[in-house]
Design brief:
This protein is mainly alpha-helical and 296 residues long. 83% of the residues lie in helices and 0% in strands. Helix 4 packs antiparallel against helix 5, helix 5 packs parallel to helix 7 and helix 5 runs antiparallel to helix 11. The model has no long low-confidence stretch (mean pLDDT 80).
Length: 296
């Protein structure tokens, strides 16, 4: 069940990426994060009440509560906002392979250092393949960006993507190490509302600090699409993800979520008219092979 939950969470995250990319020109990333996390928070709190899970919150320690909130702020508020920036600059077909190659590798390293997981001889070999695969994908993007004069956007996009992967990995290890008595719904009901509050505070503090406006106006349909991404990816997906971490551990769950490009790449081609090159496919295959070796 843990593996099925991880794969289902991965598929939902792939769909979420396509939905968010379709609205990237209408909303600032922080606003998209606010809509997503607020929608997911309402869903999760309602789910917690429905399944009578409030009792576990009364029994948890302060450290557990603060850790779950911190994990949500790191993963959803910071990590997802960084990722939305990467989507706007690189698109799904390049953002997804970079983040979903770097994320499990970083998670495994932090799991070794913080959670005490064993190191195998395949770690350096797999790590080398992961770095090679990411480099291959980035080189392909650099070649196309150079011909279009978009080198600066490439650098920014890759930076956002790798920073998102780092934030997600730290959040996953914190979740794994401090979840204690909370089940998946209980942990998610703390993580996501904390992330939502952090994003709303950020919006309040930065209001009026910039003059940038999205190139296209908001629409009711656009808000609904972003909200749907929050319900599916951040709401349902987060419960499935936490369940998987609880039953499989941080490293194995991180690996299984790398299957997301299998869903995201064809979605990006069909719904967003993004071009999938042989170099991107080869780079993705190389990184996935590397992750298999890292987690053997």
């Amino acid at each position: 069940m843990g593996a099925a939950a991880a794969l289902a969470s991965s598929a939902l995250w792939a769909l979420t990426s396509v939905l968010l990319t379709s609205q990237a020109g209408r909303f600032k990333p922080v606003v998209m994060s606010a809509i997503r996390s607020s929608t997911a928070s309402l869903f999760l709190l309602g789910l917690l009440v429905t399944v009578a899970g409030i009792a576990q919150l009364r029994e948890m320690t302060i450290i557990t509560g603060l850790s779950m909130a911190g994990s949500g702020i790191l993963g959803q508020a910071l990590g997802d906002t960084l990722y939305i920036n990467a989507l706007a600059l690189l698109g799904v077909t390049r953002s997804f392979p970079i983040t979903n190659s770097a994320y499990p590798f970083l998670t495994f390293l932090f799991a070794i250092l913080v959670l005490g997981e064993d190191v195998t001889w395949t770690l350096p070999i797999g790590g080398a393949l992961i770095v090679a695969g990411i480099t291959w994908i980035v080189v392909e993007q650099r070649r196309e960006a150079a011909s279009a004069g978009g080198g600066v956007e490439l650098a920014r996009g890759v930076t956002f993507a790798l920073a998102a992967a780092l934030a997600w990995s730290l959040a996953t290890v914190l979740l794994r190490g401090q979840q204690n008595n909370l089940d998946a719904i209980g942990a998610a009901s703390l993580r996501i509302p904390a992330a939502s509050l952090a994003v709303l505070v950020t919006i309040g503090l930065t209001r009026g600090s910039g003059r940038e406006r999205p190139p296209r106006p908001w629409t009711g349909r656009g808000v609904a699409v972003v909200a749907a991404a929050g319900l599916l990816g951040t709401g349902v997906g987060s419960v499935l993800f936490i369940y998987a971490v609880e039953h499989l551990g941080a490293a194995r769950t991180a690996f299984l979520t790398t299957s997301a490009p299998v869903f995201a790449l064809p979605m990006g081609m069909v719904f967003l008219s993004e071009r999938l090159t042989r170099r991107i496919l080869a780079g993705t295959a190389l990184t996935v092979a590397g992750i298999w070796l890292v987690l053997l």
